[in-house]
Each structure stands twice: as C-alpha cells, then as structure tokens.
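=== Structure Prediction Worksheet ===
Name of assembly: unnamed complex
Input type: mixed (protein and possibly other molecules)
Chain count: two
Listed entries:
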Amino acid sequence: MDENTHIIELKDIDKVFFQKQHVLHVLDKINLSVDAGQIVGLLGPSGSGKSTILNIISGLLAPSSGKMIKNGRIGYMFQQDHLLAWRNIYDNILLGLEIQHSLNKENTDRIDELLKKYDLWHFRKNYPHELSGGMRQRAALIRTLATDPDVLLLDEPFSALDFQTRLSVSSDIYRIIKNEKKAALLVTHDISEAISMSDVIYVLSSRPAKVKAVHDIALTLNGERTPLTARKAAEFQDYFDCIWKELSDDD
Amino acid sequence: MIDNNFAAEHKQYLAKVKTKRIKILFWQLFIVFLFFALWEISARIGILDTFLFSCPSDIFALFINYLNEGEIFYHIATSVWETILGFTIASILGIAVAILLWWFPDFAKVMDPILVILNALPKTALAPILIVWIGAGTGGIVAVAVFISVIVTIISAYSYFNGVEEEKVRLLQSFGASKFQILTKLILPANILNLMSIVKINLGLSWVGVIVGEFLVSRRGIGYLIVYGSQVFRLDLVMMGVIVLAVCAWLMYEVFNVLDKMLRHTKKTGNNPKKN
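=== Predicted Assembly ===
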C-alpha cells in the first residue's frame, strides 16, 4: 500500500431514506478518510447519521450517491458486546472465522496469542455472563480482531458501560488497537472520549450531516499516549472548547 | 466455598429448607388422600350415588382387572403413540413453517391474517371434518392432534425468531454471514429453550387432540375407554380412564421437564428472556 492510499475513503457520499410520510436527507456530501494505524473520531449530534456512515462503510447500506473506496478488511464493534450466551468466550471469538470458513492453525494461533496478551486466556472456557463488562468488551474486540481486519468500526463501544469501567475499557481498547497496528473509526457523542482516543476528529453538523470541521489532534505529552494521559495534556481543554462550540452552534 | 465460620448456621439453613420441602410434600399427598378417602366414605354411606360417581375401590378393582388382562396397556400404548406422533409432527412442521416465515418476510406478511384467523378459531370445531377427510384411524386422530397445536407453534416460534436482537444479526452480517448461517449460528441456538417450551405446550395440546379424536371415532385408546364407559353408564370405567390419562400425561410431561432442565443446565443461557 503506498503512502497516498487511504484504507477507507468516502467521496461526496449522500444518503437519502424514503419513508411513507417524508424523505430523510441524512448525509450531505460527506468526505472522510481513514489511514493505516490511525484512529479517526466521528462526533456529531444524535441523529446526525454517524451510524449511517458506519453502515455504509461496512456495506450494510448502499449510499444514494458518491464514491467509497476500501483498501482493506473491515471489523465491526458494537455498543453492546453481543457475546452469544450459549458459547464460551473461546467459541464466541471463533464466530467470525467459523462464518468465513477460515478456521486454520494460523488463525487459531493468533487468537491464542491475543487471548494471552490481553488477559483472557484463563477465562476462555468461561461463559459471557461470568465475566465483567470490561472483560466482555475486550473479548468482543478480540472476536473482531480474530478475522484480522485492517480497520475497526467502533459504534459507541463504551456507552453501555458505567463511567469508571468506561475509562479503563477505553484505555484497554486503545492499547489493543495501537498494539495491533489497526486503524479505527470511532463513533461517539462524548467529546472527551473522542479527543482522548483519536488522531483525527471529524465533527458533523445536524441532519443532513455535513463535515463541519476536521481536527488533527496534536497533544503535548510526557511519555506514552494513552486516553488517560491524553486527558491531562495542555491542549485537551482547547480542543474540547472548540468542538463543544462547533457542536452547540448547530442549528 | 462455604465459609467455615458459618458452617453451623449453613447446616441449620439447609435443614430448614429440607423440612419445608417435606412439609409441602406431605400436604400435597394429604390432599390427594383426603379427596379419595372422602369420595370412598361418602359412596359407602350413600351420600354419593355410585351409579353416577362410582367409588375409588371399584375403580381400583376395575384397574386391576384391566391390568391382569393386559388390556389397559393396549389402550395406553395407542393413545401415547398417537400423542407422540401428534406433537412430534406438529413441532417439526410448525418450526419448519416458522423458519420459512422468518426467511421470507414477505411470505410472513401474506400469511399473517390467515394465521391470526386460524389461531382464533377453536380448532376442535374442525376435528370432525379432518376425520372425514383423512379417515377414522390413527391418521385422522393424529391429524386432529397436529392441527390443534401446529398453528400456535408457527406463531410463537416465528415471534421468538424475530425477537432475536437486530444488532446480533448485524454482528453476524458484519462477518459476512449467509442467511443460513444466521439461522444456524444465531436464530436457532438463541431459541433452543423457547422451542423446548413450545414442544412442552404441544405435548399438552396433542393430548387434547388425541382424546377428542378418540371420542369421535376410535375403537381403542384412553379416549375410547372414557367415551365407551359413559355411553354404557359404567362410571368406574370413565373415572379409571380419566385417572390413567392424568398419570400418562403427567409422566410424559415430566420426561420433557427433565430434558428441559438438563438443556437449561448445559446451555447456560441465563439471559434468554421469554417473549409472549
């Protein structure tokens, strides 16, 4: 892959939904790109079509017009972990490979390694209800990573967790994504969360959604960047105020 | 696992639970005993007319008689076999149709009002016609049993299938799952326990169908014993039939209850909320 190709590129994407009573214009000429190893945050008021963008990228919805370029495989992560109650953690993680008929030594070895690296190895025979919310979310991420995607689509992956768990899970997930050198598109409505995790943030307007602003998040840190150290960076508050203003100016 | 500091209290607690269980069992048996005792006594002293109500000792004597001749097993086997056929066919057919409805949503929309009407209809009303169409043998009786339970099987299995969270379906789709994979890896395993409870309900409904069918046409079976007894005013025969029927239905239900419990235990599906 040469320098200039993005893993995902949306060019002038429009999406219109037709209903009985009215026509909903959800996306208005969206331009967006995700590069290798980059976490891209997507912020916008609720109902602004953030999830629609994810659905278009993942192929669950077709855009009404515009062009989408994908140079890699997609992995989807949801708000809830959606681990299947009747499968143990290990079998849950195999789900994607089973569906894609790619259960081979190479892939299961990778899963074993991921489980060991991210402290789930001892719980692989346990059932989902026996694990904490944070561990389940980690298991869900490993399930997504098992199919070796190049880019992860994260649809408000922490919003079902309480605040305390949310901070530690978002740190975990950040660490895993960066360790595994994956790209990610993170949809959230939490400004702090977006700044603390993203390399680039797209701010959307309300419906029909346009890209209102794009921020490259550059933070002065002493030491390694994690979502927690990012929150302590001097620039954090400036980004927050700026994006807050952009989101609340909306009408 | 048990904290030793509380071992004595824990023992006490277990003992209490056990005493309570024994107490409840005692009262259950006592009520049954009391019922039969009062029945027998009132018949003996002439409060109850034995011509209309028979009495437990006569019923028991008749039962022993049927048992010695082996005739009772013939009737039990007939009805049990028809019931097993009825609820097996109804369950398989009903679930298969529910899968089709889930697979083709437009087909489901077309079928919806038809199913609603069939469901509202008292199915026994069609029993005589079914028997005329299919014949007065085992076939006709099984058909009545199937018809009574198949509609409700279709409707509830279909609603269970659609009750699976939309996002879980999307999760599988995000891995590129085919419709068949969504069915076998998600929809069916998510509903194993729900399907089991449908089968249990079908078992009861199937007994209704078999007895109704035997009332109408049969020359054998428990339903036949009951209807024959009432026609010749042999109330001991009627009562014996009813009691044998109750025991058979209860034993069959228990078999499925045990299966269900085993399934619940192995499947560990703690969070499978029941719909409807």
